[in-house]
Amino acid sequence: MTQNPTTLSFRILTVNTHKGFTIFNRRFILHELRDAVHAVSADIVFLQEVLGSHDLHAARIANWPANSHYEFLADTIWTSYAYGRNAVYPDGHHGNAVLSKFPIVRHENRDVSVHGHEERGMLHCVCRIPGHGLDVHAVCVHLGLQESHRQQQIDVLCEMVRDEIPTDAPLVIAGDFNDWRMKGHRQIERCLNVREVFVHANGRAARTFPAHLPLLQLDRIYVRNAHVHRPIVLPNKPWSHLSDHAPLAAEVLV
């Protein structure tokens, strides 16, 4: 993070943690994932499919952390964090989380599940920049696998942003949109007047899935009220084996 009296530059990272396991759940790699997340030096981190707890794994896996996965990833670097529990099952629960070097002064997890189908949520955090008189709104998103569900969920996102976020406030919406046909992208652009960082810079969304050979454009970083925004290219290794999704990172100047 860099700042002067009139501008603030901060780094964003979004990653689907796949509950701390490699693709197909072959190996528990949360410790390696933490090292990789730390190396990016992001100011705000958006996490999807992050475990709050899992009693069965905790009993069976020797190096399972004593606290939640989002607290383990935050370590001593991101002193403020928020968690939105989405999926609950007998052994535990997982959801979205935001880790922030800025104080999170308010957060709300919005349930956008479609009845009878997969459990999904959107976590809205307000990050206050000390001594800067500025609130950055961060919305961590994990949308459904069915297109009709995503359309409904994006409608909720648009309504939430319109009703709850000032039109002149810096806004970052990031996460796993599962939007391989880009229909949701066009819907989001129309209703929210945002820019997707990779589309704006490169003319197309980044390919992020599967991580070892990315073909589908599932993950995004949208911004509004930013003077400058640019993608950060992350190395293929070690990220290609740390999740089923490749991460995305960006620099934002507001």
From TrEMBL:
<dbReference type="InterPro" id="IPR051916">
    <property type="entry name" value="GPI-anchor_lipid_remodeler"/>
</dbReference>
<dbReference type="GO" id="GO:0003824">
    <property type="term" value="F:catalytic activity"/>
</dbReference>
<dbReference type="InterPro" id="IPR036691">
    <property type="entry name" value="Endo/exonu/phosph_ase_sf"/>
</dbReference>
<dbReference type="Pfam" id="PF03372">
    <property type="entry name" value="Exo_endo_phos"/>
</dbReference>
<protein>
    <submittedName>
        <fullName>EEP domain-containing protein</fullName>
    </submittedName>
</protein>
<feature type="domain" description="Endonuclease/exonuclease/phosphatase">
    <location>
        <begin position="32"/>
        <end position="245"/>
    </location>
</feature>
<dbReference type="InterPro" id="IPR005135">
    <property type="entry name" value="Endo/exonuclease/phosphatase"/>
</dbReference>
<dbReference type="GO" id="GO:0016020">
    <property type="term" value="C:membrane"/>
</dbReference>
<dbReference type="GO" id="GO:0006506">
    <property type="term" value="P:GPI anchor biosynthetic process"/>
</dbReference>
